[in-house]
Design goal:
heterodimer, A: 432 residues, five-stranded mixed β-sheet, 13 strands, 50% helix, B: alpha/beta, 5 helices, 16% strand
């Protein structure tokens, strides 16, 4: 009776012990996975994440020699990106398994976890003579390989080895697969990051090239313009008497167009120069900058009979001349498009929120149809609703300067109801 | 008559664009003060004149009191011509005014670091152009005292 009871209890106890060990292992696996997950969100360094994955998998599967490979999409080779030190003599980082070879090649073909108690004698595993020789020196014979998948694509393989004869069970495979999934995300993130960095680099180079080109062309255009204007002026002075009214009319038109072309060139130069300013950023009094701009525009403001109100604006971080340009273009525009409003008003104010100043220039002029609100910030986009001087570059310059500082600019307006241009500008030092 | 005790001063104009040379000469020749203006088209010719060699070897030209130097020149750039003048013990005391359409910050600093005496941008408006060049001439020839 007691014997039977103890007999009955023994397997029960060992089952409990096994269950306990199993649940402890799952707990460790969950912890390991959470740890890797945290690393994934914190670090873009692939090495940090992959080495943590290899450590966890090796421990939890009670195997050794874990290794991680990426599948080279062009050649189909599996390239080692992380290997444990125990197999350093067999497989080094950067080592490439030819397409389809090894246990990893099998996992790629099957698109699921595969294992073998002895990969050297497994008929499913393809080995070149060179690989066989190499693996004969490896500290493992049994191997588990799980594919790294992103959607339906295999992007790599995670492998864990052990002594000959080791059978990897469902729990082993389950754990390995969970870590392989983490590894896929890490690999995928790294690849996305690299692609994004490369695209960003190319874009920056292209932008710089474009600015350089605009700068060069504008300068080269200026030299002949100096000549055309100079010769036209000398024609008036030296031969003006020989010209009749029609001849003088043609000359006037030439001069008006030269002036317009000069404005265009000056503005394109200013646009291409944004961000090239070598002067360092500093804290500047925004109120002071606005007052200077208002003084500069004094004649135009008086001529248009506009009342300007400047609120207290505080201090901001930036390059003085750039902020001046932004304010000058916005206030200049407000004056230009004030129309025949009975009591023309322009108000400049700001509100600070979390390291940024939100500055507005508000007028009660002719306003802008909401259909054109995006368009006004594009270069050479002038709304030809009324005849005013301008090149259509002013607001593009504003946008470029503001965005170079990390800010935004937008307009709120309705036709005939004035316009409010708002831009954000940093009040604290920040990288440009 | 002026700070330098003589009426006329030789001005060396280094300018590859013949139209700009014509406009600049016109501005320099306006007014009562008559100066001898030597126009050369590039840096090489400028040094031929300054060192009295090649076409100028047997012409015994006088030393210029002022050099107006364009920046965008063929062969030797204006910046290099400037550097060479300012590196030469014989020539370095001649005032050099950079006269150009460019107003690039880096180019302006480079010129001053090489010892340029002034940087003047050519404006598109001709009256402004005339005024600027005239002012340059009046300042360097009348107001300023040059070394002998």
């Amino acid at each position: 009776m007691s014997t039977r009871a103890s007999r009955a209890r023994r397997p029960g106890q060992s089952r409990y012990a096994r269950l306990l060990a199993e649940s402890e292992r799952r707990r460790l696996a969950a912890e390991g996975l959470a740890d890797v997950g945290r690393l994934l969100t914190q670090s873009l360094e692939l090495e940090v994440v992959t080495s943590r994955i290899l450590d966890s998998v090796g421990q939890l599967l009670r195997g050794h020699s874990p290794s991680l490979y990426r599948l080279d999409p062009a050649s189909g080779a599996l390239i080692a990106i992380a290997v444990s030190t125990s197999i350093a003599s067999t497989i080094q980082q950067g080592f490439a398994f030819p397409p389809g070879t090894g246990m990893g090649g099998l996992a790629v073909r099957c698109r699921e976890a595969v294992s073998s108690p002895n990969l050297l004698e497994d008929p499913r595993v393809i080995l070149t003579p060179e690989l066989r020789q190499r693996l004969e020196g490896a500290p493992y014979r049994a191997l588990l390989s799980v594919p790294l998948m992103i959607k339906d694509d295999v992007i790599g393989v995670l492998s864990v080895g052990d002594r000959e004869g080791r059978i990897f069970d469902d729990v082993d495979i389950h754990i390995a697969q969970a870590f392989a999934n983490q590894a896929s995300v890490a690999l995928h993130n790294a690849r996305l990051y690299e692609t994004a960095q490369r695209a960003l680099g190319a874009l920056q180079a292209k932008n710089a090239e474009l600015d350089g080109f605009a700068y060069m062309v504008s300068h080269d255009l200026k030299a002949p313009l100096v000549t055309i204007q100079g010769m036209a002026s000398m024609l008036v002075v030296d031969c003006g008497d020989c010209l009749d009214e029609r001849g003088r009319h043609y000359l006037r038109r030439i001069e008006v167009n030269i002036a317009q072309m000069e404005r265009l060139i000056t503005d394109v130069l200013a646009l291409s120069r944004v961000g090239r300013d070598a002067r360092p950023c500093a804290m500047i009094s925004f109120s002071e900058v606005v007052d200077e701009v208002l003084a500069g525009l004094g004649d135009r403001i008086r001529a248009a009979g506009v009342t300007v109100t400047r609120r207290d604006l505080g201090a901001v971080w930036g390059i003085r001349t750039e902020l001046q340009q932004v304010v000058s273009n916005l206030v200049g525009n407000a004056v230009k498009y004030i129309g025949d409003t009975p009591d023309p008003q322009i108000e400049i104010g700001a509100a600070e929120r979390a390291g940024w100043l939100e500055c507005y220039v508000r007028d009660n002029g002719i306003g802008i149809d909401p259909a054109y609100h995006q368009q006004v910030f594009e270069v050479f986009q002038r709304l030809k609703e009324i005849t005013v001087d301008g090149t259509g570059v002013g607001l593009a310059i504003v946008k470029k300067i503001v965005e170079a500082m990390g800010g935004r600019v937008w307009v709120e307006s309705a036709k005939g109801r004035g316009a409010t241009f708002t831009f954000t500008w940093p009040t604290e030092a920040r990288p440009r | 008559v002026n700070a330098n005790g003589y009426g006329a001063l030789t001005i060396l104009l280094v300018e590859d664009n013949p139209d700009h040379a014509e406009l600049t000469r016109r501005a320099l020749e306006t007014g009562n003060m008559v100066n001898k203006i030597i126009w050369v088209k590039d840096g090489e010719e400028a040094f031929d004149f300054l060192y009295r060699r090649a076409a100028w070897a047997d012409k015994n030209p006088e030393r210029p009191g002022l050099i107006l130097l364009d920046v965008n020149l063929p062969k030797v750039s204006g910046q290099d011509v400037l550097r060479q003048i300012k590196d030469d013990a014989e020539l370095m005391s001649i005032p050099v005014v950079m006269l150009t359409t460019s107003d690039r910050d880096d180019e302006v600093s480079t010129a001053y670091q090489s010892g340029a005496n002034s940087w003047v941008t050519k404006p598109v408006q001709f009256t402004e152009f005339m005024d600027k060049v005239k002012n340059v001439k009046l300042y360097w020839v009348l107001t300023n005292r040059l070394p002998h």
